[in-house]
């Protein structure tokens, strides 16, 4: 299982939210420095991949593309980026900064044909479909808009379209540090050809062990690292991450 540290960006700074609510924003530059410094730190601690979410873009408040480009320039790690990617053109601009995968939420649901277009241009593994869900119901547009689709329906649909990477986030658990939604994630791992990345609620190394046991491909770790619940190095030593 890959352990993937998260760098969430707001106003060019590292931030963590609780349940996606911008009013709960907590900034971490005092402890972790700039986003580039944090990215280098995660690389030094053994990360094999970085997960970047552009919250300004997700909330329609501009974007952090220059910072993302700077991170891509300064680390030698694959980078997945999400937040506000609502057109092929935005995805293309991000790939031009040197990232490797885009995480699509609203665009995957409003214009599924964009997935094939991106995959054709940037490779079949270039797209991760975000299944952000509230009690099983998929939410998009910065978690403010409900879709008519459940997690299982979305997995069925997008695996048939040739998508193999899915980021599943439990909105209720996100930022709470009280454990991931193991039931939804466990059910998702049974879909053939679906590689599941878990996010939301991870608060301990025990949570990571539970995720490894159910067979997810990766786990995105955010607040637990920034709040000092454990270090990335410790987690990698104990979980034996890939």
What can you see in these coordinates?
- The chain is an alpha/beta fold and 242 residues long.
- The protein has helices at 29-32, 35-44, 55-58, 65-74, 88-96, 106-110, 113-122, 151-160, 182-188, 205-214, 223-226, 232-239; strands spanning 2-10, 13-18, 21-27, 50-54, 79-82, 101-104, 127-134, 137-140, 145-150, 165-170, 195-199, 218-221.
- The protein has an 8-stranded parallel β-barrel, surrounded by 7 helices.
- Helix 2 packs parallel to helix 4 and helix 10 (205-214) packs across helix 12 (232-239).
- The model has no long low-confidence stretch (mean pLDDT 96).
Number of helices: 12
CATH architectural category:
Alpha-Beta Barrel
How many runs of DSSP E, i.e. beta strands?
A: 12
Beta percentage is 25-35%
Shape: globular
Mean of pLDDT: 96
Give the N-to-C terminal Cα separation: 6 Å
Helix and strand content put the structural class at: alpha/beta
- Topology-level CATH name: TIM Barrel
State the domain count.
1
Helix content: 25-40%
User: Low-confidence spans: pLDDT under 50, at least 5 residues?
Assistant: none
Broad CATH class: Alpha Beta
CATH H level: which superfamily?
A: Aldolase class I
Biggest β-sheet, characterized?
A: 8 strands, parallel, barrel
| Strand line-up in the sheet with most strands | 1-4-5-6-7-10-11-12
- What is the gyration radius calculated from CA atoms? 16 Å
Sketch the topology as an H/E string, one letter per element: EEEHHEHHEHEHHEEEHEHEHEHH
